[in-house]
Amino acid sequence: MAAAFLAIAGACQAGDAIIAPRTLYGGTLELFSDLERMGISIRLVDEVTAEALEGELDDSVRLVFAETISNPRLSVLDTPATAAWCHEHGLALVVDNTLASPALARPLELGADVVVESVSKQISGSGTVIGGVICDGGKFRWDPARFPALAPWQKFGPFAFMAGLRKSLFKDMGACMAPTTAFLCCVGLETLSLRMERACANALELARWLDESGLVSDVGYLGLASNPWHGLAERQFDGRYGALLTFRAGSRERAFQFLNRVRVALLASNIGDVRTLVLHPASTIFLEVDKADRERAGIFEDTVGVSVGIEDIRDLISDFNQALSWVPPASTRKERRAMAKIDNAALKKGGFMAQKQKGFYSLRLHITGGHLEARQLVGISKVADEFGHGYIHLTSRQAIEIPFINVEDAEKVKALLAEYGVEPGCCGARVRTVTACQGSAICPSGNIDSYRVATMLDERYFGRDLPGKFKFGVTGCQNNCLKAEENDMGVKGGRKVTWMSDTCIHCGICSKVCAPGAITDDGERITVDAEKCVACGKCSQKCPVGSWDYQTVYNLTFGGLFGNHITRGRKILPPVESDEQLLAVADATIQWYDDHAVPGDRFKFCLDREGWESFVPVVQKAYDEAAPEGCPKAASVTPEPAQEA
Fold it and tell me: Which pLDDT belongs to residue 452?
């Protein structure tokens, strides 16, 4: 845009006018709004013809601005005829040659006076730079009476325009291309001809396929004989027709469904790349343009723009075919009513979460404790490739989600996953997949086999319907990698330790590694302050002579929450000493929640509303009834207060 701005502002001043077609690139039309605020009048015509230009001509007009090929309407400028008309009336012809590039058209040789090019497009070719260039033909007579903005530089004759830019606007605005940008453009120029040859050939073949496929309508490409500008393009571009094409998908929804479905092509608001790019012009480059002006430029709500790259054309056609073939035609009112009856609640229960894109769901998988086998990953990869967009998402809850699953493919997806031992997860108001760290099976700090415990809980509770969602989190030690306390019920592995004096050498290691300071060593006897001990197990893990006997225990927390109201759960029980006791407490917790919560209630909010004094006795009773011999009574622990994280 800087090049286009300088080309116009360099020749014009407040009170001057220019004539341009309505079919220009949306960004240029937005630039015109800025120029009008500066006092330069813009007069738009539907087509650049002598008749249309004559209708806007008066003494204030200084130049005509047009594109060699308009983006994205793909109309073609008759450059020789337009240049002849301009020169007859003492006007300059400024041409934006971005879409054609120097490989297809040399407007200066066809009569244009000034050419601007965006080097961000075909010239660099890889979307790596932002920049533009201005080329002055050096032949136009910049009459100071007609171009008072250039009067100070009239001594330079036909070079007055470029001299004025260099000595005023260009210098004053600091519009200097960075050396790295210039280097990348020079590298791009070395392959421009070859790239354009391949891109034009691909675009012609893709346009022909689209035109004959019956999947879309109104395919716009200069290489098609049916195109109104085909003959003019053939004469001016030596049998090549550019890399840009358009088509109409039938509806805005179908256009977006296509854009979300392509795999080889990239969704990007750009053109002129070695990669094929697709976009929705009405919501991107023409977003700020009035709807009526958009449609005059050939841009409708269902228009899709395609900048064709240099990939294998067979891959491109295959990609477009799969992206278009499955897209349903514009639905009737009856069909829309039927679609509205899709049971999203049932889908959510089965792990399918509705996306913002209509008709698509992100499938959350059932991955207990974050544990997956390699063969399961193979199956997940196949589903993502065949039914999604070829990628997966790892959530903070150790889940894998496969986005962009069409609801019509749900059963096929589940069947393919089942072949590899993978199950859909669940969402909504029910017990979610249990999360866990790797625990003692892998981690040296682990006190419990977290995955085993997670599997035990998952098999017992996963998917159980409740008033709201409920989450278990299992972590193996006090390091708390999984933040167990931020779950509705957190399980943290610990060790109930006993000092054995007969082997102790009083090295002092145990007291040094005890972060809470619960261990005291006077050189003859070691004592443990039960009130300070958090059952982290570090003393038994680090003791070099094995002077600590221990029993594995579970430290439990209740009412944790993360999200908008992060809350650490409360410790209200002594350490749990067996699996049976753990399950008894979990049973009591789940049942109390089910009995007391209202629909949509989270466990924490239910506890706050009903009162902890209602809940604590229930789990204390379950704890005591399932307690192994010698286990302390539940009431021996004073419940911690709730803490906002």
Answer: 94
Neighbours of 603 (CB within 10 A): 28
How big is the chain by its Cα radius of gyration, in Å? 36
- DSSP single-letter state for residue 227: S
pLDDT at residue 563 in the model:
75
Number of residues assigned to the chain: 645
Tally Cβ neighbours within 10 Å of residue 600. 10
Pairing of strands 472-475, 489-499: parallel
Region 152-172: mean pLDDT is 90
E strands of 514-599, at which residues?
Answer: 519-521, 526-528, 548-558, 567-568
pLDDT, tens digit (0-9, with 9 covering 90-100), for 463-510: 999 999 999 999 998 888 888 999 999 999 999 898 998 889 999 999
Give the model confidence (pLDDT) of 59-109 as tens digits: 999 999 999 999 878 999 999 999 999 999 999 999 999 999 999 999 999
3-state DSSP assignment of residue 109? coil
Q: How confident is the model at residue 191 (pLDDT cuts 50, 70, 90)?
A: very high
Cis peptide leading into 80, omega within 30 of 0? no
* Most distant CA atoms of the chain, gap in Å: 112
Q: What are the DSSP E strand ranges found in 338-385?
A: 352-354, 360-366
CA angle 367, 371, 376 (to 5 degrees): 70
Closest to 71 (Cα-Cα) out of 4, 125, 24: 24
Burial class (CB in 10 A: 0-12, 13-18, 19+), 599: exposed
Please give the distance of CA 397 from its chain centroid, rounded to a whole number. 20
Helices and strands, number each (H, E), in the chain: 22, 24
Paired tokens of 408? 């019509």
**Angstrom distance (rounded) from CA 91 to CA 113:** 10
Sole residue written with tokens 């999604």: 388
pLDDT bin (cut points 50, 70, 90) of residue 353 is confident
Q: What is the three-state SS of 615-640? A: HHHHHHHHHHHCCCCCCCCHHHCCCC
pLDDT at 330: 46
* E strand or H helix that includes residue 306: strand 303-307
Query: How far apart, in whole angstroms, are the C-alpha atoms of residue 535 and residue 556?
Result: 12
The answer to whether the beta carbons of residues 48 and 82 sit under 8 Å apart is yes
Cα separation, 276 vs 237, whole angstroms: 22
